[in-house]
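Bench log. Compound arrived from synthesis this morning; before running ITC I wanted a structural hypothesis for how flavin-adenine dinucleotide sits in the protein. Inputs:
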Amino acid sequence: MRFVIIGGGPAGTEAATTAARLGVDVVLVERDVVGGAANLWDCVPSKAMIATGGAMSALSRIAGMGVSHAGGHLDLAALAARITGITEHLEGSTTDILLSQKVELVRGAARLDGPHTVVVDAADGTRRLDADAVLVCTGSRPRIPDWADLDGDRVLSTRDAYPPKALPEHLVVVGSGVTGVEFVHMFESLGCQVTLIVSRQQVLPRKDPEVAAVLEEDFLRRGVRLLKGARAVGVDRVGDIGDWDGGGGSGPGVVVRCDDGRSVVASHALLAIGSVPNSEELGLETAGVEVDGSGYVPINHHCQTNVPHIYAAGDLSGKLPLSSVAMMQGRKVAEHVVGGHSVAHRHLNYDKAASAIFTEPEIADVGLAEADAFAEGRKIRVTKVPFASSARALIDNDPRGFVKIVSDPATGVVLGGSIVGRNAAELISVLAVAVTAGLKVADIVDSMLVHPALAETLAAAAD
Ligand SMILES: Cc1cc2nc3c(=O)[nH]c(=O)nc-3n(C[C@H](O)[C@H](O)[C@H](O)COP(=O)(O)OP(=O)(O)OC[C@H]3O[C@@H](n4cnc5c(N)ncnc54)[C@H](O)[C@@H]3O)c2cc1C
């Protein structure tokens, strides 16, 4: 049995190691960096930048803890080296794991040439690989609208933001979804002036309004300008912004035009308006694999495409665009390839995936949202406890945010929850386990947790 995987991001590497452990002959083809876009451009560098910004903002937090400080100075060259160091380390360690599991790693761009053949254009020539099963997990890339001419200098995609060469004096971010708000937080905490163009009346339009309100309040407190109800329709580079913004600045910059006639003058613009799948030039049509109108590859609950031995996973599958989901899909595919169709605990339920937004405060949620339950007319019990009542939050001098738990009033089963606050991305794990395992609020209340710890607020909300 030979299993060929196209794409070495979270989906591909997880599928490769799982299948190899289960005794399959695995070939993984990667055209760029092992670890994928997740390691090179998305999750890892963005969180490394945010961690540095967080260290700088921690200086103001410790000022309230009896520590005096002279203020932080950002060393951009050191930050760039740190990001490169982390991504290279992760690429090396992932490659080591693959090789130790006897995965054959082939460098080059791959495409299907019929349902059982993968062709790789490698530096040393073309190679044809016969395959019993194929996983296509080539990821996605930033969506660039036709009204924007990216130059990697003043008009940027999320991939142009790091390693940072220079910090923008004033950055206008277009797009107020998860990626957009993380970039606002990242650059503001590093010391930039930031304007966010919000097409609706709420940042994070798909999130619980109460959750989004905490973030908006924090952005406004930090001096982030929110331009609400405006849709960007054009961006122009200008030689001297002084000619545009009434003398408030000078030097080269950008003007972002909105559909309501307003415009924003800034030094740089960054577009964070979604992504498009990498499904071109993969030979999907030669193998008979269906692609939907947006370029995604539809899959069933085993991640099979319409051609049963050809699977798709990760961003390409058009499900939840998260590394964690891509990895779980990769595992699922490997188990299915080996024949473990009945592994019940690996059954994917995308509604139970936890997700986080690495702003300050962090935002994380899992399962059923309060607003969705109301929209469905479903009976729920909602309990909410602020971190202001947590000893640990007060000790850490950061009592912002809250824990909200959604449960079934009849059975007490935990259906979902949201956490806004310090370490929310870690704390949500407790609720994620509860939602996945069908635990009850009483199971959380009955757990003897550490004191003083932020997790105690989870138990208080469950009570
Ligand atoms: C700014 C940003 C921040 C993010 N932060 C997070 C986060 O904090 N947490 C989280 O869970 N998710 C995050 N995401 C989402 C996450 O990055 C993606 O969901 C994840 O990378 C998807 O994994 P993948 O395996 O599908 O694809 P990718 O990581 O994109 O990997 C696909 C791989 O396929 C390779 N490839 C493409 N075509 C070919 C070909 N023809 N032949 C060979 N190889 C090929 C590519 O080189 C690439 O290495 C973020 C996204 C963005 C944009």
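What the model suggests: Residues 6-12, 29-33, 36-38, 42-43, 46-47, 109-110, 137-139, 158, 179, 278, 282, 314-316, 321-324, 326 surround flavin-adenine dinucleotide (CB under 6 Å). The chain has three domains: 2-141+276-342, 155-271, 361-462.
ITC booked for Thursday regardless.
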